[in-house]
Amino acid sequence: MIQQIYNLLWGDLITIPLPGGSSLGLSLLVILLIPSGIYFTIRTRFLPFRLFPEMIHAVLEKDDKSRKDSISGIQALIVSTACRVGMGNLVGVVAAISAGGAGAVFWMWLIAVFGASTAFMEATLAQIYKEKDPLYGGYRGGPAYYIHALFQKTSSKNRRCVLAVLFALSGLICWCGISQVIGNSISSAVENAFHIPPIYTAVILVLIAAVIVLRKNATVKVLDIMVPIMAGCYFLLTLFIIIKNIHLLPSVFQKIFMEAFGFRQAVAGGIGAVIMNGAKRGLFSNEAGSGSAPCAAAAADISHPAKEGLLQSLGVFIDTLLICSCSAMIMLMTPPGFIDGLQGMDLLQESMKYHLGNFGPIFIAVILWLFSFSTFIGILFYARPNIAYLFGDNWLSQTLYKILALAMLFVGCLAAYTFVWDLGDIGVGLMTIFNLIALFPLAPKALSQLKEYEAIRKEEKKASA
Length: 465
Fold this sequence. Notes:
The protein has helices at residues 2-10, 28-43, 47-50, 52-60, 73-84, 87-100, 103-128, 143-151, 162-194, 198-213, 218-244, 249-260, 265-268, 271-286, 294-297, 305-332, 336-339, 344-356, 359-391, 395-414, 418-464, and strands at residues 14-17, 23-26, 131-132, 139-140. It is mainly alpha-helical. Strands 1-2 form a two-stranded antiparallel ribbon.
């Protein structure tokens, strides 16, 4: 049954024949997410292009956090970035290029542009329908809350909505599955780089994680430090590699754009693989539409809902156009002879070894540890409002879920159970479907907030002129 649901969500639902004997397989989620991104991009009047300066302004603007126990818009962006930036930004990008060629990078970029509009809509709605959080302080919310608001009737205000319950359950299943994937990826990378047995990695990792996640408000404080450092180090090191190989940059971009439209693959019958590997990588990585990031966006104490929407849109760009592109450049600037026959983490570590010597594989192991660990901390932050929606405001349910996630992290370090991984993929697929059901009818509310915010900014600019 699990396999059937997985195939329905992620398998090729429709296959379109293409010239050269290739074919384009479209999964249900690709069919839902890409048109949704295009639709919201049009409805927001091409927000990713038109309002990119406003996204930067929202980041640089003075912190407008007003409550002592709440988090700011920037902190909400850091939490969502911690979850977006993970193992997929390293191994996932390498896998996409290995299967679809350099052209997959272009389609990854394109999906990110459309995904930014979807991210704006869901984050803005999360802000509109957020509630006070009596347990942790500040605010909480997310798709479960705006789905509830969409379907609830006045006479049944305190009852739970079936669709919102299904979303929350899907999220909790997904994040449990991801916990195991994180444990497995960290222990494998550490064992490859330092030859440390997985059991030692498991014990140390779970102890450190427990100290952070079992404390009331340590999560955001830790991510405030971790995320800028890890993303900054990875970006700066990639920048060093690009500058060192600057003469290769024109040929790398030429290869990306040439292969994106299948000038080489069309002859070999592989253009479908190019498009779909890039599209799936972009969708998996930036999470736009899945309903995860709004769980962090709702917690922000910010001056206007649309402002948080713009910050979360920027998060999609940070993830895909910045971090994923870093991994792509590292690989595409490595001579093919050095990485022939390699896959996944081995391929990326060997690429880094070519560029940085023996320091390269060690750096990748450390950065993967940081990326994955921050994702684990972030997903438990996402879980908070969904646990509260399902089980009410009590510490017992919150703590039990954290213990379950820590147990999955421990098990993942020792062994990989594909059944649990499939459950995680099913969870995120179902979340996406339930989330999109609410996004379309609620879109006018988010769009009205955008219009209001743009009017406010216009007046501010006039006043300062």
